[in-house]
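quick one
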Amino acid sequence: MQAKIAVLPGDGIGADVIAEALKVLRAVAQVWGHDFLFEEALIGGIAIDQTGDPLPQETLDLCRASDAVLLGAVGGPKWDDPKAKVRPEQGLLGLRKGLGLFANLRPVKLIPALLNTSNIKPEALRGTDLLVVRELTGGIYFGERGRRDGGKTAYDTMIYTEAEVERVVRLAFELARKRRKQVTSVDKANVLESSRLWRETATRVAQDYPDVEFNVLLVDACAMYLIRRPTSFDVLVMGNMFGDILTDEASMLAGSMGMLPSASLAEGTFGMYEPIHGSAPSHAGKDDANPIATILSAAMLLHYSLGLEEEARAIEAAVEQVLSQGLRTYDIAEPGSQVIGTRAMGDAIVQALVAGR
Ligand code: NAD
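structure w/ nicotinamide-adenine-dinucleotide:
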């Protein structure tokens, strides 16, 4: 197959981990006979430095002309002045909005070889395999915000329309049908009006999916249950900010932020794929960041945007294999494991992929 993939490394470890994901995608192209065209563009802090804009028009145009986008991470202390008018995250938020990426899928699947890496008890963790579906283009990150009283009062607005909620909840149900057929909708309906609309809408949509078990949960209780009984969840669907926070928490179930991939989907097959972690500036260029989250994001790209199931599964299998051989980056190391760098981890995964074919 032929596909054009926009590559946006961004800042910090973004370039380090993207390089390894590209190695893996190039190996897939070679082994399975695909023709992937990769084209790079600027986003985030590096884009501010070079163009003054965290999301240059050229980048948006390239993404729109591509089948999918692979992104590293944005941000860093250099651009962290809270008073700055132009910030790296604006690039990311602009891309999500500009590309209509309304749903962010974050699978959290414990790889058996990492059972002892997490600081949660193995008996609670064993079998964890959940999918968080986070609404991505609405909610408090996009609502009206500002200051008044001479800057001494600040406000942000959490705003959702019924249509926005329905679209993402429907996707969650469709995905649940291909999994264990259970959806949990997470909100704060005891306090927030936007959450009451969220719950009403989710409950109505659930009636169209009688084959899928449906539950609602308050976000604070969900934060607790994710640690206490993670294996009880299949698909969780929630608003933008709740999803942002709970997926960082859930990353600890998988051992490290460096393990968790994500897909941000638009209507149709177009999507943007990125690790859930940030740019970890203190690790940039040190060849020690874990590239697995980005490599698994590339696998999601093959699955969701290109429909290449076998190739996506082969990447996941290669990752599992190197981990079961005891190879680890520093963030998932445990006594007795062999700690290797970013590039060596990418090479080992490519080797396992090619050998497994
Ligand atoms: P972070 O995710 O960048 O890093 C937090 C810590 O997690 C790191 O210090 C490191 O110890 C560990 N870590 C993260 N990714 C890792 C990996 N692949 N391998 C090994 N260890 C890893 O979060 P932060 O330090 O809060 O933020 C740093 C910058 O990233 C900030 O500027 C923030 O705004 C930005 N950020 C960007 C995104 C994004 O681009 N999607 C997301 C979150 C944060």
